[in-house]
Amino acid sequence: MRTCLFGLVAILALSARPPAARADGRDGVPELDHVFVIVLENHNSFTSFGSNGILDNPMAPKITELAKTYNVAPNYHGVWHPSLPNYVAMITGDWTGTDVVGTGHLYPAGSTVGVSDDDSPSVAIDYGPPANASSHRWRVNLPSLAGQLIEAGKDWRAYLQNIPESGTHLANWPGDNNDGKLYAVKHNPFPYVAEIQDDPKQFAKQVPLEQLFSDLGTRKVPELSYIVPDQCRDMHGLGNPLAPCGGASDTDDNDVKRGDDETSWLVNAIMGSPVWHQGRNAIFVVFDEGNGPLTCPDYDPDHGAGTAPGSLLPAAGCYDPANFNDRVVLIAITNYGVKGVQDARFQSHYSLLKTIEAAFDLSYLGHAADQTTNTLAPLLAPTHRE
Predict the structure, then answer these.
(1) If DSSP codes are grouped into helix, strand and coil, which group holds residue 208?
(2) Within 10 A of 218 (CB to CB), how many other CB atoms are there?
(3) Which CATH number do you get for residue 327?
(4) Is the dihedral of CA 69, 75, 81, 85 positive or negative?
(5) Residue 28 covered by a domain
(6) Is 259:38 a contact under the CB 8 Å cutoff?
(7) Do the Cβ atoms of 184 and 172 come closer than 8 Å?
(8) What 3-state DSSP class applies to 195?
(9) Residue 313 falls inside a structural domain
């Protein structure tokens, strides 16, 4: 009887451990069961270009400790400015879209160009006056990571803090530029993508952040969880005095401190959940952009400057690693494997996309497929004992 009980305990103990990560996955990326991406805003890794950084910032001790404890990509870059094109690049491998109205441009409405502003998706609903309606409307006619996952029989969900309801078409909440907009659609790439716009079931996968915690507790999180705090907690900040973090409270120190606390809270919630202890899982903490210069500052589709030959699209130089200079934080945390690793190779949002696609055995989209796009494989490696 004692022997049987001992055997049962041993089996249960083994089953509670994450399975050893296969290091022989695509491009060295082990197969993963769940990926959590937490996106923060507008700070370079270190103080640069006249603005505060994160990893040398006394207001970000928790993120700094995560970077010291787990794995980092110190040569990781945002791909463009402002926010929206970076978010779009994370799930499509490019930052181009169709400007369905073309307001204020010489190119005609319906032209496909590089996304160069933070305006709303073509399906978004703006508040009426005195709110300011978006002057552009974007529709991204590119395949996306979301569509890939669904086609492969997997699932995704965007967990968005202060989004008013699942699958909302509201551009911002509450209000618009006349109010403190905590949820800002410019920080959510999914409603811009045509294949999601056109599929109500996919559109409904944009849900309030609160659902993340119930999904973690009930083991119902999808393969990809894309997590975006609101503008008071993602280090963006809101100057509007009507915002909870606005007015005199809208200092960079306060923004960074709130974002640091939020990140720690989210990471601890994920790592403390039953999901984290089953299978092979990874968390990526990443910033959308810093304050570095543009990769191709002369890009101007209105006047044909910096465009690809015979096109309104960005020229090849806009994607050349030699032209990137916007280093942002990328931290990788796994429930298995190595710790304290730094991968100093050039990385960007295309690298994050490529890594997630490799982990789920998906094809590479857009510039994730470029030979110059490295995966984050060294940060996801198993230990020698696994």
Answers:
(1) strand
(2) 11
(3) 3.40.720
(4) negative
(5) no
(6) no
(7) yes
(8) helix
(9) yes
